[in-house]
């Protein structure tokens, strides 16, 4: 593999850098999205229970102690409870927009790697073919041995560029699907929070009337 890399010429280095960078971003995305998904599944039932049994203040404390997008959204909504349901809903929508942007963070870099890796590979292809033709012109001969080096460089950069782009593209598609799934979960959880708050407020009103 190292020998093939060296035969690919100078254009192999930026392709390698893109591969390392793309893998770093992919690992960060796996960690962030897994953490966000886990938090949504485990945090929502817990905060709903505390909200109904112990009240808004305790639920807010739990939100402050819990990292993650869903906790931020719930905290934004619960902090506006005193201002009425409409204020709560607006706060949830605003926080949801911010957290959606957070979930999409890094995706642009993966898209950049997917675009640049094959392009740099094609640049290496052109460079290799130019080198092959220059060798032919210098030797005034078209024997395979003379052009083999340039053609090898041309083909290696192309394939390595695609080898980098294909797995990163798969990661990009998987992450996009996971983000969409988390957004749906966040929306459902937000609706559940509004319903839970309505029940809590109704119970509080009934106790005050009695």
Compact overview of the structure:
By secondary structure, the chain is mainly alpha-helical. It has helices at residues 2-7, 12-54, 56-65, 69-78, 85-104, 107-139, 144-209.
Give an overview of the whole structure:
The chain has 210 residues and is mainly alpha-helical. The protein has one domain. The protein has seven helices and no strands. Helix 2 runs antiparallel to helix 3 and helix 4 packs parallel to helix 7. The longest helix has 66 residues, at 144-209. The mean pLDDT is 81.
Protein topology:
Elements: H1 2-7, H2 12-54, H3 56-65, H4 69-78, H5 85-104, H6 107-139, H7 144-209
Helix pairs in contact: 2-3, 2-6, 2-7, 3-4, 4-5, 4-7, 5-7, 6-7
Overall average pLDDT? 81
- Provide the structure class: mainly alpha
Unreliably modeled segments: none
The domain tally reads: 1
Tally of helical segments: 7
The main pleated sheet reads as: none
Compute the CA-based radius of gyration. 28 Å
Spatial separation of the terminal alpha carbons: 79 Å
- The percentage of residues in β strands lies in under 5%
Instruction: Spell the H/E element sequence.
Output: HHHHHHH
- Taken from the alpha-carbon principal axes, the silhouette is rod-shaped
The total strand number stands at: 0
Roughly what percent helix? over 70%
């Amino acid at each position: 593999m190292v020998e093939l890399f060296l035969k690919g010429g100078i254009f192999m280095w930026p392709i390698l850098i893109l591969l390392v960078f793309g893998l770093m971003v992919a690992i960060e995305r796996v960690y962030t999205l897994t953490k966000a998904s886990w938090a949504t599944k485990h945090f929502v039932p817990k905060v709903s229970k505390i909200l109904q049994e112990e009240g808004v203040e305790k639920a807010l404390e739990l939100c402050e102690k819990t990292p993650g997008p869903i906790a931020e959204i719930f905290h934004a909504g619960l902090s506006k409870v005193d201002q009425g349901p409409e204020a709560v809903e607006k706060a949830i929508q605003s926080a949801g927009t911010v957290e959606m942007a957070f979930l999409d963070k890094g995706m642009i870099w993966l898209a950049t790697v997917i675009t640049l890796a094959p392009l740099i590979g094609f640049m290496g292809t052109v460079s290799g073919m130019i080198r092959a033709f220059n060798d032919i012109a210098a030797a005034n001969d078209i024997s395979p041995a003379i052009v083999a080096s340039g053609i090898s460089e041309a083909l290696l950069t192309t394939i390595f560029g695609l080898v980098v782009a294909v797995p990163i593209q798969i990661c990009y598609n998987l992450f996009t699907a996971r983000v969409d799934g988390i957004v749906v979960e966040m929306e459902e959880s937000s609706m559940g929070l509004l319903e839970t708050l309505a029940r809590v407020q109704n119970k509080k009103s009934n106790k005050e009337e009695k």
